[in-house]
Amino acid sequence: MSEPREPAAQTAPEQAPEGPGPVPDGAFAADLDRHLTRTNELLNRMLAEVAKTPSTHAIFVDAGYVYASAGLLVAGTEDRRSFDLDAEGLIEAFIDKARVIFADSRLLRVYWYDGARRRIHTPEQQAIAELPDVKVRLGNLNANNQQKGVDSLIRSDLESLARHRAISDAALVGGDEDLVSAVEAAQGYGARVHLWGIEAADGRNQAEPLLWEVDSQRTFDLDFCKPFVTRRPVTTWEHDAEPPPSRDEVRFIGAQIAATWLVERGREALADLLPGHPYLPGAVDQDLLIEAERLLGRSLRGHAMLRRALRDGFWQHLQSQY
Question: Per the database record, which ranges form the NYN domain (predicted)?
Answer without folding.
Answer: 58-199
